[in-house]
Amino acid sequence: LYQSITYEGDYQMPPKGKLPEGAVADIRRWIEIGAPDPRVTENVPDVKTEIDVAAGRNFWAYQPPEHVSPPVVTNDSWPRNDLDRFVLEKLESTGLKPVADADAGVLVRRLFFVLTGLPPTPAAIEHWSAEIEGDSTGLNQAAIEKLVDALLGTKYFGERWGRHWLDVARFAESTGGDSNNVHQHAWRYRDYVIDSFNNDKAFDRFIMEQVAGDLLPIGSDAEWAENIIATGFLAVGQKLVGEDDAQKFYADLVDEQIDATTRAFLATTVACARCHDHKADPIPQSDYYALAGIFRATETHYGLIKAQARQATTLIDVTGLGPEPGIPALTTDEYTELVKARDDARQTVDDAMRKIRSGENVFRGTLRRIRSDRDETEAALQAYDSRGNPRVFAMGTQDRDFPLPTRLLLRGEIDKPAQLVPRGFVQVLSRPGRHTLPPRTNGSGRLELAEWIASEQNPLTARVIVNRVWYWMFGQGLVRTADDFGAAGETPSHPELLDHLAATFMENGWSIKSLIREIAMSRSCQLSSDFDAANFEIDPDNRLLWRMHKRRLEGESIRDAMLFAAGNLNPERPLGTYLRSVGEGTVGQNVFEPVIRAIESNRRSVYLPRVRSVMPEMLELFDAPDAGSVSGTRESTSSPLQALYMLNNEFVSNQAESLADRLLNQPASQRVDSAYLLLLGRRPTLAEREYALAFMDSLEDASGLDKRDKLLAYCQVLMCTTEFSQID
Fold first, then answer.
1. Which uninterrupted H or E stretch holds 697?
2. What does the pLDDT look like over 152-161, one tens digit per residue?
3. 283 with 424: CB under 8 angstroms?
4. Cα(216)–Cα(205) distance, integer angstroms
5. Residues 6+ apart with CB under 8 A from 45
6. Closest Cα to residue 78, out of 62, 102, 100?
7. Residue 51 backbone dihedrals phi, psi, to 5 degrees
8. Predicted local confidence at residue 249, as pLDDT
9. Contact 611, 634 (CB under 8 A)
């Protein structure tokens, strides 16, 4: 409507002349306040709740974390830090005994994979195993601490742990949904996350930047650009950009942002209260719309080409960040040619619209095509300044000019408004009477929301991230439902330990690396994964941590470990996104799935294209999430397709071939040992060495393969083993 009355769109209304400026301003203001229907401003229903929020605050997760003194244990010589005392107290009270410490070599490989997602080199295994090998009193803790600090200091740490957070942030480089459009600029948020973990950015600051970075004080243009990129957290979610009804689209966009924000940082399913009071948790429907008022006052910028996505937006210009990587400047002639292409495309659309207004028929498909051509040429030109230098864009958020009045919707239906709801927060997580924003709050309220989430007074925030870190290190959280701390989730196996870690985490400046170091230096984290029948009878799920969980590596680490062992891994970060080569548009129309799937790289898997519904085959087979929503945990399925992939896929055979060539440069007597060290992180037993030689001899007898082909086959066999793809 607004584009029509300002003559900026394809239709000009009224056709015989523009409205007076005052009338245009009135309509603009009406749109900005939510385009309210004057017929529903009175006599709307007033929906009441039967939820007792005050009583709901008695639930364990809504109580502030308490400083809990470490318990007294019988075997006082076993704990290495306070964390261990909480674990041992549970074990002793149930008649369980922890298993022995892990072997030094096993622990070295475990720490490398847990902290960096990459295996150790044979030299690192030999060096650190010798350093850590202890005596009768246990492993050398000074050497373990030195190794942990070294791994935390590598750039590989951020790539590994950044990938963990990208799961939580439902990061993808396309919209997904009904019209799966490619995001060419989402990669900036990915790199921001990786850098934040490498720099050990305080987690409360990390929250603030992602929820309200555009509203934080800044000291430079570069800092402003980084903060804008951080708000990509709110822009990278799944969006139904093919939706005709703009009002419904924005309601769904706000719903997705509420769900992502509350589940990622608070492990609370507030979005369940969109249509009715929450069925399990003390969250009335009005709490949902209090948050919706904040996000409705937020403009989300994610880009896309208008003709290919009905609900397209602009991007945010962050040119002060520096040049666009990999994009050369245009020559004067190239820039002039681009301007001419833009003008010609506009003229073609104008000519078609004149024909339509004169009553002449224009084929709808033709109109769609020429509009798409116009939008593409305009987008191409907007990517450069007037001198032909590339401009830099980012996805992110900014406040609208005015907060929009927000009404509770009966059953969540847009055409059934009820009472107005002031902007605010979740009541059960707030102090009584302190859950709404003051009426005169400037801006959207996102800054206040970010401060509320990142506050030490919030009972959930520190607990939730501590539990996530525990899950990423142990393979199972203290609360196994990492994305749901509500009544429908599980209770913590060690509630006092969770509170202890949350409290010390905040005291230590919300430092993720300090928390990881504390957990890694505990005896609980250094146990072997040995089976114990007596313990298994009492605690078959190992909830009380009598041993270390064995678990399969994520698909990214399996792929990276293959490249690493083969000597093919390029450890450098790529410039931008690999999706630049496929162009912008809708997957399946302007951008073809086979083209995306054909993109391959020898960089770390965190940098591969992450297009919703078009995942890299290996990651899809090994349970990487499709980023439809927050994924704080991953499934670990086992299927024949995984085995068939490892046996037959060209990528796997190529890595096995490179590894074989690498081993051929060594004396024949060392090749099997080197293969084991590179792929499994240990030397083979005598029997395993004999099996290896017998296997390769049998291939020669059967088919006359040369020594390279035999070695290649054996390398691929080792890559197919469970041990290769597992953390012990």
1. helix 686-703
2. 999 999 999 9
3. no
4. 10
5. 410, 418, 419
6. 100
7. -75, 130
8. 93
9. no
- Position 42 scores a pLDDT of 60
pLDDT value for 385: 79
What tokens appear for 707 in the block? Answer: 């020594």
Q: What's the confidence (pLDDT) of residue 371?
A: 82
Residue 565 has which token pair?
């062992």
DSSP β-bridge partners for residue 409: 417
Question: What does the block give as tokens for 648?
Answer: 């037959």
Residue 84 Cα to chain centre, angstroms: 31
Tens digits of residue pLDDT in 703-724: 667 888 999 999 999 999 999 9
CA distances from 345 to 305, 377, 380, 556, 584 (A): 14, 7, 12, 43, 18
Sign of the dihedral through C-alpha 112, 113, 118, 121: positive
CA distance 395 to 229: 6
pLDDT per residue over 502-540, tens digit each? 999 999 999 999 999 999 999 999 999 999 999 999 999
Give the whole-angstrom CA distance, residue 399 versus residue 34.
15
d(CA 382, CA 706): 58
By mean pLDDT, which of 183-197, 226-240, 390-404 is the weakest?
A: 390-404
For residue 32, the model assigns a pLDDT of 75
Q: What are phi and psi of 461, to 5 degrees?
A: -55, -55
* Paired tokens of 42: 């009175």
Find the DSSP H helices in 231-331: 232-235, 246-266, 285-296
**Measured between alpha carbons, how far is 163 from 629 in angstroms, rounded to an integer?**
15
The partner residues of 390 in beta bridges, in order of sequence, read 384
Under the banding of pLDDT at 50, 70 and 90, the label for residue 283 is very high
* Residue that the structure tokens 């191409």 belong to: 380
As a whole number of angstroms, the distance between CA 4 and CA 40 comes to: 26
More confident residue, 172 or 36: 172
Are the C-beta atoms of 511 and 200 separated by less than 8 Å? yes
Tokens of 613: 């519904």
CB within 8 A of 84, min separation 6: which ones? 78, 522, 523, 524
Nearest to 117 by CA among 622, 553, 691, 659: 553
Q: If we measure between CA atoms, which residue out of 78, 99, 80 comes closest to residue 549?
A: 99
Separation CA 360–CA 370 (nearest Å): 17
Rg, the chain, Cα only = 29
Determine the straight-line distance between the first and last CA of the chain, rounded to whole angstroms.
62
Please report, for residues 286, 361, 482, 554, 701, the alpha-carbon distance to residue 478 in angstroms, rounded to integers and kept in the order given: 31, 66, 9, 20, 54
Please say whether the dihedral angle defined by the alpha carbons of residues 257, 260, 265 and 269, taken in this order, is positive or negative: positive
Contacts of residue 463, defined as CB under 8 A and 6 or more positions apart, other chains included, come to: 61, 65, 485, 498, 499, 502
How far, in Å, CA of 254 to CA of 541, rounded? 39
For residue 410, which amino acid is it? L
* One-letter amino acid for residue 678 of the chain: L
